[in-house]
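Posting for a labmate who doesn't have an account.
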Amino acid sequence: MRNYLFGKSLVLVLISFPLVLSSCVNLKSVADYSATSIVSIKNFEQIDYSFLQHCLDRCTDEAIRKYEIKRAQECSCELYIEADSVTQVFYATIEGYFEGLGLLSQNELTNYSSDALVNAMTAEEFGPLKIDERLASAFSSLSNTLLRATTDSYRRKKLAQYIEEANEPIQVLLEKFEIIISSNLKGELRFKRERLYAYYMDMKMNQTLNSDYEKGKAATDYYQALEAIQRKEMELELFGESLAEIAEGHQVLYENRNKLSVKSLQDLLKVHSSNVKTLISEFNKLND
């Protein structure tokens, strides 16, 4: 009888072990997705272009066009500085959320710092950016979710609740962050490219270049500057694509939040993580 009970217990352990292992594996896939997302989001720090830089470039280009020589640039860039500050808030909030998601999936949320949390943002305009009520509400909702996660003793059993509460606001913030990068900032580079073209065309049309050497040097300088701008545009485009891929991955998490231990979720997350890693690799190649 004792042998029978021992054998029955052993069978139950062997049956339940794959389920436990599967749960761990799939929660690991959530952690891996979060870690990959963080690496991609942190590439924002490698983008050597900002709204302030656009403002300063515009002033410099105008001074060069007019042949103005001054002791210091006279640029009014306050609104562009504020736009950069808002962009930094997007970055810190989104990065902070995925840090919390990763730690929660590993049952380590007690190590999480809420320093990256932001207060509710009011609806107003910051130079080329506009924070509407929908965005202000998303910041507030996500901040509250992150704050509760650090104070309400969240653990892995609440991972589904964390994902559910955060999905709508994180989707809003990722969408707007992508627009800031892929549309607003990239649009400023487009203006820079047009100013560059106009400057060299003016030299050509006004026949200010006399020798063949001057003409060749001007053409070389133009195409080198154009290549640098286009490289930066590609960098912004790749970063924007990675944000869209991260958003799609989180939507998959949200739709499967109540079955996080199902292997099909692991396979789906692997696809999104792989896509993000590919975009990270392409982004890094531009900075080599």
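Reply:
Got it, the structure tokens are right above this. The CA atoms of residues 57 and 192 lie 8 Å apart.
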